[in-house]
C-alpha cells in the first residue's frame, strides 16, 4: 500500500519537524518565540451561545494545530530519491508577478519567486497524497479531470527548493529588450528570492513621473522557460485596488472545510458570481487603476491562482505566502506584512481594499490600516459572507470600524452592490445597501440556524481541516 506524502502532518496535531540548513542571513527583526494565536478571538459570551456549532478549538479562541507541508527530507524518503538523483533534475523558476515604483534613480522593480525541482512521482503516489486532503476522490462524484487536477496541485506541493541559486533576468518592454539585471542575492534555504531591483531604460520605458498609467514589463529567466512572468510599473500617484481572492473573487468556502479542500484541490476554480465584470468595469472607469491581488496561499501553489485570475480578471501584481518565514508577523500575519509593504512602497497612492468578512485577520487589519496609514485608505469593501452563504458558521467582529469614518467602508452582499462605484470620484458607498454595523460580533443567527447540521464526526474532523485551510489562506 502506497503511503501518503502528507500523512505525518495530517494525522497528528503537531507535524514532525525535520531540521533544515540554517537560512541565509537576512535583515529582519529579531525573531521571538511564537505564541498561540487566536483564530477569531471569540469572547466567551459568544462561544457559550454557539456551543457545539463550531469546532472546539475555534470556540476556545485558539488557532487549531498548525499544519505544515512535508519537509524536503520527508519528500525524498517517500519517493525514494537520493541527492545524486535530485541533482540531475532540471531547475525550474516560478516568478511571481511583481510591481515597481518610481524613484529618483529610476524604476525599482520587486522581483520575487521560487526556484525548485520537480521530483518524479507516479500517479499512484500523487493520488495517495491527494486523498489525504480530498478523501472522496475515488467516489463517482469526481471525474478524471478532477483527479488530474488534484495530482497537479499535489505535485506542486512536493517540489523541492533549490537554495544558493544565482539568478539573472531579461526585462522586455513592448517586446523590446529593456534591461538585463542580476539578482543581488542567491536563493535562500527555501529556494525563494524577494528583493527590489533597480533598472533604467532611457528612451524606451516611460519614466514614472511622465505617466499616470500602469505599464506592463515582461520578465524572462534565461534558458529557463518556466521563469517567464510580468511586472507592473506603477506611477507614484493614482489608485491601487488590493483584492483578496478566496471567497471574494473565487468560490472557495474556506469556512466549510470539506468544500474548501475540494474547491482548492479537485474542482475547477469558479468566479464568485459576476465579480469579473465588476472589476473589468472598474478598470475601464478608473484611469491608471493598479490591480494587486493578495493571497496567503503558499507560493508552491500560486500558479493555479495566477492562471485563474488572469483568465477572469484584469492583469495585476501578486502577493503570496512565502515558505521562509522568519518573524512572528510573517508566520501569523503574512497578509499584514504584505499590505504594509505595498502601502510603504506607494505612499502617495490611494488604496481600495476588497475582501470578505469570513477572515478574522481582515476584520482587524483592514480598519487598522486607516489609522496606520492616514489618508491612504480610500475605501474598504467587504463581502458579508454570513449574509450570503448559510454555510459560513463563524461570526465576524466589526468593532474595528467603530472609530473610523463610515464613508470609508461598505459591507455588501452581491457584486451588483458595488458595481457602480467610481473610485476616481471618491465613491465608497452605495446608499441603497443597508449597513447594519453594530461594532461587535455579528453573524450569529447564521451559526445558530445551522448548528443542527454538524454531526459528531464533523466536529472531530473540522479542527484538522480548518488547520490546513488556515495554513493555505488565513
UniProtKB/TrEMBL annotation:
Query: Where does the secretion signal sit in this chain?
Result: 1-19
Pfam families, sorted: APP1_cat (PF09949)
Cellular component GO terms held in the UniProt record? actin cortical patch
- Keywords on record: Signal
The entry lists its GO molecular-function terms as:
phosphatidate phosphatase activity
**Cited InterPro entries:** APP1_cat, Mg2+_PAP
Q: Where in the numbering of this chain does the Phosphatidate phosphatase APP1 catalytic domain appear? A: 239-384
PANTHER family hit by this protein: PHOSPHATIDATE PHOSPHATASE APP1 (PTHR28208), PHOSPHATIDATE PHOSPHATASE APP1 CATALYTIC DOMAIN-CONTAINING PROTEIN (PTHR28208:SF2)
The molecule here is called Phosphatidate phosphatase APP1 catalytic domain-containing protein
Q: Which organism is it from?
A: Rhizoctonia solani
Print the organism lineage: Eukaryota, Fungi, Dikarya, Basidiomycota, Agaricomycotina
Amino acid at each position: 500500500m502506497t503511503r501518503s506524502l502528507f500523512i505525518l502532518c495530517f494525522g497528528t496535531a503537531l507535524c514532525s519537524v525535520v531540521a533544515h540548513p540554517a537560512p541565509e542571513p537576512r535583515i529582519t527583526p529579531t525573531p521571538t518565540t511564537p505564541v498561540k494565536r487566536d483564530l477569531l478571538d471569540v469572547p466567551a459570551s459568544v462561544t457559550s451561545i454557539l456551543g457545539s456549532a463550531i469546532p472546539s478549538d475555534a470556540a476556545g479562541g485558539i488557532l487549531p494545530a498548525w499544519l505544515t507541508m512535508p519537509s524536503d527530507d520527508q519528500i525524498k524518503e517517500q519517493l525514494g530519491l537520493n541527492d545524486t538523483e535530485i541533482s540531475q533534475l532540471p531547475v525550474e523558476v516560478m516568478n511571481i508577478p511583481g510591481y515597481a515604483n518610481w524613484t529618483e534613480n529610476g524604476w525599482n522593480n520587486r522581483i520575487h519567486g521560487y526556484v525548485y525541482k520537480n521530483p518524479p512521482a507516479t500517479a499512484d503516489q500523487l493520488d495517495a497524497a491527494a486523498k489525504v486532503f480530498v478523501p472522496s476522490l475515488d467516489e463517482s462524484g469526481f471525474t478524471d479531470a478532477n483527479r488530474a487536477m488534484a495530482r497537479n496541485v499535489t505535485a506542486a506541493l512536493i517540489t523541492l527548493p533549490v537554495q544558493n541559486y544565482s539568478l539573472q533576468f531579461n526585462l522586455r518592454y513592448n517586446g523590446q529588450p529593456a534591461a538585463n539585471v542580476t539578482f543581488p542575492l542567491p536563493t535562500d534555504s527555501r529556494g525563494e528570492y524577494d528583493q527590489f531591483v533597480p533598472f533604467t531604460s532611457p528612451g524606451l520605458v516611460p519614466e514614472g513621473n511622465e505617466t499616470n498609467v500602469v505599464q506592463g514589463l515582461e520578465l524572462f529567466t534565461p534558458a529557463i522557460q518556466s521563469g517567464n512572468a510580468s511586472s507592473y510599473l506603477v506611477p507614484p500617484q493614482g489608485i491601487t485596488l488590493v483584492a483578496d481572492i478566496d471567497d471574494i473573487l473565487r468560490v472557495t468556502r474556506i469556512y466549510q472545510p470539506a468544500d474548501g479542500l475540494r474547491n482548492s484541490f479537485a474542482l475547477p476554480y469558479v468566479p464568485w458570481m459576476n465579480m469579473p465584470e465588476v472589476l473589468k468595469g472598474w478598470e475601464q472607469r478608473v484611469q491608471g487603476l493598479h490591480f494587486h491581488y493578495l493571497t496567503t496561499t503558499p507560493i508552491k501553489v500560486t500558479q493555479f491562482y495566477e492562471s485563474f485570475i488572469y483568465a477572469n480578471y484584469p492583469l495585476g501584481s501578486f502577493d503570496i505566502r512565502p515558505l521562509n518565514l522568519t518573524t512572528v508577523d510573517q508566520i501569523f500575519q503574512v497578509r499584514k506584512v504584505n499590505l504594509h509593504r505595498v502601502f510603504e512602497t506607494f505612499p502617495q497612492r490611494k488604496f481600495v481594499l476588497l475582501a470578505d468578512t469570513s477572515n478574522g485577520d481582515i476584520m482587524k487589519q483592514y480598519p487598522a490600516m486607516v489609522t496606520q496609514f492616514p489618508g491612504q485608505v480610500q475605501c474598504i469593501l467587504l463581502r458579508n459572507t454570513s449574509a450570503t452563504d448559510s454555510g459560513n458558521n463563524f461570526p465576524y467582529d466589526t468593532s474595528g470600524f467603530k472609530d473610523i469614518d463610515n464613508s470609508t467602508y461598505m459591507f455588501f452582499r452581491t457584486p451588483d452592490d458595488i458595481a457602480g462605484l467610481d473610485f476616481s470620484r471618491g465613491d465608497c458607498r452605495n446608499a441603497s445597501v443597508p449597513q447594519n454595523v453594530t461594532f461587535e460580533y455579528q453573524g450569529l443567527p447564521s451559526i445558530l440556524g445551522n448548528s443542527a447540521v454538524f454531526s459528531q464526526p464533523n466536529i472531530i474532523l473540522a479542527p484538522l481541516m480548518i488547520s490546513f485551510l488556515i495554513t493555505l489562506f488565513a
